[in-house]
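User: My advisor, Dr. K., asked me to get a structural model of this assembly before our group meeting. I'm new to this, so sorry if the format is off. These are the inputs:
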Amino acid sequence: MKRIFIEILLILTISFFLAFIYNSLSPEGLRILPKKELNKSGSEGNSLISNPGTK
Amino acid sequence: MRQSKISWNISFVFRLILGCIFLIAGLAKISDPVGFLISLRAFELLPKIADRFFAVYLPWLEFVLGLFLILGILYRTSSLLLAGINLMFIFAILSVIIRGKVIDCGCFGLLSDVIGLPDSADIKAVIRNIIFICMCLYIFRTEKTAISLEGYINKKSISSG
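Assistant: The format is fine. Below is the predicted structure of the whole assembly, which you can bring to the meeting.
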């Protein structure tokens, strides 16, 4: 039982670090999500997703 | 002995099926985090800060669990965790059905548009998740098998030691 609990924690931690690293490096990560919302509400913002034609 | 061999093989096939499904579903969502965030928001279950976190974290968890199931690393725990995630999905979809909303479940992310996989939050999705839970519990129930990286490493360490 204890072993399963430790293994669950290990899997959750591995996933968390992978997600964290990917989103630190990727332009489509968590960082651009607030910008996307800003664009939706009409405020200024510059993201690749909301403006697919821009570089 | 014979029966355990059969159950090992069934468990192995279940691992491959579930592993492939969740690996692909995870990758599809990882490639489109904003799309998955929009799907999550349609459920109206999570607070705004939490849904951003889940939109990024959940696809990676699915990806890791799928990979572990295929490779056979910590696969019994992975199957248990996957059963828990599927149970969570069932509650989310049932809440949508009860509220009478018609939305996409976001289960397969971009793939649902590209190759037309089923993606609506309806009773079919609930049944699909129940089948996944049964498969997960079967994998968890089966004792450690040799058809896994974990089993292979154990075997090697016993023979060398």
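One thing worth pointing out at the meeting: The interface with chain B takes residues 4, 7-8, 10-12, 14-16, 18-19, 22-23, 28-30, 32-33, 36, 49 of chain A (CB under 8 Å).

User: Perfect, thanks a lot.
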